[in-house]
Amino acid sequence: MKIETLVTRLLFAGLALSLVFIYFSQERLFSFMTKGDNALGFERYFRIASTILVIAAAFITLFFVKKKYAFSIYFAYGILLVYLILNFLISGGDILNPTDIMNTKGFGVWLCFGLIFVSYDEYRYTLFKRFLFMAIIVIALLSCYNFFEFGAGLYRGQALSKYRVYAVNYVWVAPYVFLILKGNKKLAWLRIFALFMGLILALITQTRSFILIYFMVLIFDYFHTKKKTPYLVAFSVFMVLAVYFITNMDIISRSLDLLINRGVNDTRTGQLSLFFNQLNIIEIIPGKGFFASYKFGNTELYFLDNQWLYLLWWGGLIPVTAYFYLTAIIPFKMFITSNISYETRVECFIMLLWVLGLAGLAIYTTMNFDFFFLVISIIQGRVLYKYSLLKND
After folding, report:
1. One-character DSSP codes across 41-94
2. Do the record's keywords include Transmembrane (predicted)?
């Protein structure tokens, strides 16, 4: 079997298992929020198998397929991974404990990030796009099942318990599908469906940041549309239908009311204020390590909404700089390049949204083992590969 074929099979087997795990992850969240039960059952094997498969695909590619990417990309990834492994070991993480390794402060996530190196193959990336078209439908069907069985909930906590995992994964897949299908007449229905379902999930979960992301996607799409008058007409029809659904379906109307009430509440400033008051600038240069925490009253907090600050806080200056170079600097340089294709511009735009999402724009967005992070890493790898091609020309 050729290396390319092996990598492709490992990759899509891992992605498929990760997609399946979305259902179990959502049900686990529901169990935790209603019963306090957060235990993993047999579904843990889906997560373990998925992780092993995608890491294998990433590192087979990394070691056996050389010179596809610019040296700066290999160097940035290498120093990021090595530094975080050392940070993990020095700060007391247990190398024999899979739970520690797979923690958001472990280095397992960054092994999965090696998926940036699988995106150079044209055939594999075409399959990946088709896989995302299927993933959109699968997540939508799971959401619709909950919608008819459970409704939207009487308050936000109930909505999140049944839709949060679906909404978070959807918001990082739907924009790409919506934009990349532009001009595809056969799949125009899927393009509209992806955006519509994303907005419904954002509304049900009363998530302001997700609605803002979809709005930014529409702005991008508008400016990349030649005939703007038909676009405005189509958008107006879409809005009329959206208003109809909102005003005529009680559960969606209730979600909108709760979302408006949330819109005037600042939920981030207090956390950041407490964090900065306890921040030691000297300590974050090397990173505080695996057991980094700060106090919220009498409670020890180990997380932070802003993922750039979070990585800087526990990981240190070197990893956050390397990741920022790969995730923000290169995609931005590509985005402002005049002679790139529409597809490349879409991929760069998705990465810029991801940068903003990690900065706190998109709640529940983290670097982890979830399906959406694997998807973003592959899209990012495509941008890095095209950057390498431009640099070599």
Report:
1. -TTHHHHHHHHHHHHHHHHHHHHHS-SSS-HHHHHHHHHHHHHHHHHHHHTT--
2. yes
Contact 330, 359 (CB under 8 A): no
CB 95 within 8 A of CB 338: no
pTM of the prediction? Answer: 0.91
Q: Are the C-beta atoms of 209 and 361 separated by less than 8 Å?
A: yes
43/20 Cα distance (integer angstroms): 9
Tokens 């839709």, residue located: 163
With 0-12 / 13-18 / 19 or more C-beta atoms within 10 angstroms meaning exposed / middle / buried, residue 237 is exposed
What is the per-residue pLDDT across 205-224, written as a single tens digit (0 to 9) for each?
878 889 899 989 999 998 98
Helices (H), the chain: 3-35, 44-64, 71-90, 98-101, 108-112, 122-150, 156-171, 174-180, 188-204, 208-223, 228-248, 250-263, 269-277, 281-284, 307-315, 317-324, 330-335, 342-356, 371-392
d(CA 9, CA 22): 20
Q: How many angstroms separate the CA atoms of 297 and 77, rounded?
A: 37
Contact residues for 206 (Cβ-Cβ < 8 A; gap 6+): 156, 159, 255, 258, 259, 262
Would you state the structure tokens that stand for residue 204, as one six-digit string? 């049900």
Q: Where are the domains of the chain?
A: 127-267, 270-393
Q: How many CA atoms lie within 13 A of 22 on its CB side?
A: 27
CB-based contact 346:129 (threshold 8 Å): no
- 299: β partners: 296
Contact assessment for residue 206 and residue 257, using Cβ atoms and an 8 Å cutoff: no
CA 187/CA 199 separation, integer angstroms: 19
Q: State the average pLDDT over residues 288-293.
A: 88
**30-to-159, 165, 343 alpha-carbon distances in Å:** 10, 10, 37
Looking from the CA of 30 toward its CB, the CA atoms found within 13 Å total 14
DSSP bridge partners of 296: 299
Cα Dmax for the chain = 61
